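#data-curation
PF: Archiving a pair of folding outputs for the training set. Convention for this channel: one message per protein, sequence first, C-alpha cells after, nothing in between. First:
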Amino acid sequence: MKNLKLLLCIVLSTIALIACNNDDDDSGSGPGKSKPYVIGLDLGGTNSVFGIVDAYGNILETTTIKTGNYENVEDYVDACVMALLPMIDKVGGLAKIEAMGIGAPAANYYTGTIEYAANLRWAKDRSVPLAKMFSEKLNGLPVALTNDANAAALGEMLYGVARGMKDFIVITLGTGIGSGIVVNGQMLYGHDGLAGELGHVIIVRGEEGRPCGCGRTGCLECYCSATGVAWTAREWLATTDRPSLLRELNPEEITSKDVFIAAEKGDELAIEIYEYTGSLLGEACADFAAFSSPEAFIFFGGLTKAGELLMKPVRESYNEHALTMYQNKPQFLISGLDDANAAVLGASAIGWEIDK
C-alpha cells in the first residue's frame, strides 16, 4: 500500500511539473527558438516540394513546382519564392518563420551550396550558392541546406522506421539515387560536407558502363534508379525479341511505372528487369555494409512501390555477396512515410538547428 501511495505521488508530481512547463513555454515555437514555424524544401530533380512546418512536425501548408522547368537558377529561385509567399502569408508572414531548410542533390551542408548536381540543369556544371540566394530573396531569413537523401534520413530518424536506430543507411530511389548515412546517431557529412554519394559508386566498369549525368560511366544510379529501370527496359527490348507488354509502348516514353504495371500483370520480361535491378542494388549494399555495418538499409522513393518485386532480389543478392560477418544482419526496410513529407520534415529539421 505504501508503494502504491508513493507511485501515485510521483505520477501526480510529474503531471504537475509537465503542466507547469507547458504554461511557461511558447507553445508555437521550436526548441530554443522564438518563432513558431520553419520552411522545409525537398528539392528533387523532377519536383520541388515546400512545406511550412511547426515544432511538432505538422506540415501546415504545402505546394509544389516543377524543378526541371527552369533553365537557370535565378528563375528557379524566383519561382520558388512566388510559390512560397502565399503560404507564408497564411501563417502570419515572415515574422512567424524562424528559418528555412533545404534538402537537395549534391548539397554541401557546410557552405550552403549545390555542387555540380547531375540531375539539375542549372547546377550540373557549377557550384550554386542556393542558401544565400534564398536568404536574399526572403529578407535575410536564415537558410541552410543538406543533401536531399540526408534530409530524408533525418525525417526517417525522427518520424519513421529508423526511430531508435543509431546506425543505418537511407537509399533514395528516385530520378537518381541518393544516400543518407547515419553512424553512431550522427549524420555523416565528411570533411567537406559532401559525403554520402553512394549513387555514384561505379558498379559496371569499362566501355559497357552506362554514361551517367555526373560525367562518369557505370554509376549505380544508371541501373537502380527509376531512370535506370526504364533504361534497362529499353535496352532489353532493343536487344531481344522476347514478348512483353512493354512492346505496346513507345520505347522512348517507357517509365519505371510502366515496367511496374507490366510486372504486376505477370509480364516475365518486366519481372526480370526488377530481379536484375534488385540484384545489382543488393550487391552494392553488400559493399556499403563493409564501411559502416548498418543496422538497417531503408529504401525511400517512388521505385519502392514495387515492393517485393524489388526487395526480394535485393535481400538475396546482399546475402550472396556480403562478407560472412555481415550476412543476415541488417534489416531491409521500405520507408512507411509519405515520400514528400519525410523529405520536407527532414529539411525543416535543419531549419530549427540554424544558429543565427
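PF: Second:
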Amino acid sequence: MTTDLTVGNPKKVLLVFTVPMLISVMFQQLYNIADSVIAGKFINENALAAVGASYPITMIFMAIAIGSNVGCSVIVSQLFGAKKYRDMKTAVTTTFLSASALCLLLTVSGFVFCKKMLLLLDTPSNIMKDSILYLNIYIAGLFFLFMYNICTGIFTALGDSKTPLYFLIFSSVGNILLDLLFVITFHMKIAGVAWATFLAQGISCVLAFIALMKHLKKFATSEKAPVFSLPMLKQISLVAVPSILQQSFVSVGNLFIQNLVNKCGSSAVAGYSAAVKLNTFCITSFTTLGNALSSFTAQNLGAGKQRRVREGFRSGFSMLLCIVIPCTLLFFFGGSLILKLFMNNESETAIQTGFTFLKIVSPFYLVISVKLMADGVLRGAGAMFWFMLSTFSDLIIRVALSYILYYRFGSSGIWSSWPVGWTIAMIISVICYFSGVWMKKFKP
C-alpha cells in the first residue's frame, strides 16, 4: 500500500506510517538478539564473545547497505512526492545495478581481509576461530543483505511501511527457528547461528524483490523508464555517499572501541556484546522514527510543503517519548536481569560488565533520540553537510574519550564517553534544525 505523506493530518499520517516500521525494526533486532542469546545459552560464553567480536565488522557492511538504502529512498521519496514516476523507476533500477557492483567488490574484499581485521582488533585467541567462521558465512550473504535493505528502503520511500513488516516478521521468525534447529538439534554451534541468518535473509530478499517489482508496475508512465542513468546515479550518490561515509565512519569508530573492549578479555567482550545488542535495539528504534521523518520530509519538500515538515517533527517528538521512557527505565533498573537471558550464572563478570554499560548510557537515550529526529529532517532535505557534521562530532569525541578514559578507569571509562558524544552531537543537530538551514539546502 502506497501512502502519500503530503496530505492529511501530519500527526495521524506519521503515526500510521511509522508504527509498522517500528514493529519491523523490533523484529529485526529480535533475531539479532536471538543469535546472541542462543550462542551464549546453548553453546558457551566464548561463542557469544565470537559473535560480539565480529559484530563491529559486520556493521561496516551493514553501514554501506544502509547508506545505499538512504540515498535511494530520499531521491525516490522526492520524485514520488513530485509525481515524477518515470524518473522514480529509473532511480530504483539504477540503485539496484550500482549496489550489485558495489556488493561484489565488498564480498571479495571481505573474504580477503576477514582474518586481518580480527587480528587488528586484538581479538582474543580463544574466540578467533569461531569469529572467522561466523564472519565468512556472513560475508557470503552480503548480496541478500544489500538487496533486502534497498527493497525495504524503496517501499518506505513510497509510503508503504507495511509490506517490509511482513517480510521482516517472516525473516525474524524463520531466523530464530533455524537458529534453534541448527544449534540445538544439529549441533552446528557458531556455524549454525551464521547459516540461519544467511538462509532467512536470503529467502526474504528474493520475496521482497519480487513484490517490489510488481508494485512498481502500478505506476504508469507515458514512456519507458531507462534502466540505468548516470545523471540519476550522480543525484542518488549526492545523498548516498555522505550517508555511506557517515554510517561507515560510525562503524569504523566502533572498531576502535571494540579494540579497547577486546583488551579486557573474552568475558568483557561477551558482556559488551550482549549489552550493545540491547542498546542497539533502542537506538535502532529511535533511528527508525528518524527515517520515517526523513521520508515524510522528502515527500513534503518534493511537493513544496515546508510547513508540514515542522508539524511532522513536533508530532514525531511526542511519539519518541513513548519509546524512550520505557527503554530507559527498563535498562537502568532491570538491565542485569535481562542480561542473564544471554548467559549462564557462571558468566558473572560478563553480566556485570554489560550492566555497567547499560546504566551509564540509558539515561541519555532522550538526548540521542532527539538528535536522530533532527537528523531525519536534515537527511530528508538533502542537507547532508550538517547531518554529517553532527554525526562525525559524536564519533570523534566518543572514540577519543574512550581511549583517554580507558587507561584511567578501565571499561567503565569507555562507556562514559558515549553520553558526552551524544550530547554535543544533539546540540549541533538541533541548532541546524531550528535555524532552518535544511530548507535553504533543499533542491527539488
